[in-house]
User: Fold these one by one.
Assistant:
Number 1:
Amino acid sequence: MQSITKRLQVLHKEIQAESIGHTMYKNAPQEHSGILSVDEEHSMTEVSTFRVAYEWTALRDSIKDLKPTIRARFCLCLQLLGLSLLGEYYSDEANELLDRDEESILAIFQETAEPNDLRMFSEREALHCIALMYALLDASGAETGELQQFLDPRFSYQYNQRVCGAMIDIDGAGTLERVDIEEMIKALLRSQVRLYKDLTAKGVIELVTACRQALEQDWVLL
């Protein structure tokens, strides 16, 4: 299992190599060819890397203190996002994801973010990724309200979903918009994360709605 910085580095390099900056950013100008804009294409300073490492530690502590039902919903949201990225529910990769329990899913958030590993990212990008996790926590019912000012509406819906997927070692070209509710019910009933005794279409729709809320571009910044 890769460290969180290694996962995000892979995602960063893939997107740069694919030259899909126009899909990374909402309403991005044509000259964008990667994640960073011209004035942001530089590594973080020593001060900013330590700031990001500090915010990652704060996120880790917030997750440790989650109520059991919120923790389970957060994990199910990550599994749902991963399955929708894969676009299939019965592959080996999907089965491995569903076989993971809460402890396994949340283990990534217990890692230490090493400042030297963060230097390839801009501060804006790194804080956006952390804030995105807070957004998913809040959509799961945590009500942290943390770091909302660092959610960058220029990043695309698909990029945000791929960041969430990176947290659980999943990547793919699928989207949340193509979720098959009935198949997702069957899949999540196989999950080792226990939240629902009987998962219904309403329950899955609530999870999809929570994920959409976190990934949306038109956030209200507090």
Number 2:
Amino acid sequence: MPSHNITLESPTGRLRMVPPNPADDEVMASIRCHTVTRRYLQFLPTVITAEDVRIRREARAENPQITDFYLYVKERIFNVYEENESCDAGLIDRKLHRVTLDTSVDNTPMRGWLEKVAGIRLEANRTECWKIRPGEYCDVVGYALLDWEWRDRVKAALERRMNINTGEGIGRNA
């Protein structure tokens, strides 16, 4: 059972965030150990079963500090920390003060998008942060976006880049 019943959708409908549910366990198992996913998240297991995903989903649902979401892009994941008004990925519409995004130092496509396209600032370099396999770790970089940075700079820059004239949320067409 999910710890919440919150569903968030972007104004264009391209992105949808939903609570984890049992129907997605098999797909999530496949995604978490897929070679493309593991290229940048090397700490993920090479093999994970739907049962492993179920156990993880249920354990996280019991933790009041975690609000998990599965992120679907058009057809087709993130933690919200209510006490700090922050999260681990893109919930600007929730009026959070701080959003943090972590990725492997080797994930140049994501790093390039965060830095060059979104203009989100690099905040941290963490040496040997994510365990890849026993005795082997990868470095992680952390980015952060504060509500005033979103409001005063990043939102408008992204909207200009997407040729969107909005009054409110990202993706609202004129």
Number 3:
Amino acid sequence: MAIPSPHQLAQLPIITCLAALRGIANRSDRLSVTQATHARLASQWRRNPNFVRSNAAQLVDGVHAHFRHCFSALSKENGNGDDTIRRFVAFSNELNLHHAIEDGVWFPRLARFHTELQLELLLLEDDHRAFVALESRIEEGDTLALREFIENLNDHMDREEMITVPFLMDGTGGL
């Protein structure tokens, strides 16, 4: 089965797009195509005046950009020294608070108003639990777990934005 192009995926309804992405068997291919599809969609969002007027820009360019920057900086450090682990714990505590708000408030609200998103939101919540499981490995100095955490987090934020930004921009996805 051929891998759909990001151009093709970006034209699909988001639920169909995400299902097609989950259908890509090779993890590396799926991550790459998800990232490219997200980039294409983000370019479209930024041309919409509602991107800045809504909370979409705050989510993408504020909150998620902050997490991308913080964890990316950790991945560039050599080794798994105590300072790296200490900083990871601080960043992950902040991330866990963000995820607690999503799981406890924002995602349930989105699921009530957009029932078609229920599966996708549950998958995002599953991601949140998987991050917590990886944290203990990282705190024990597992550098491979840190790389996996960051790769999964970037993919998670891409998918979360693909799901939520259109609803933030049209006014039906806010808190």
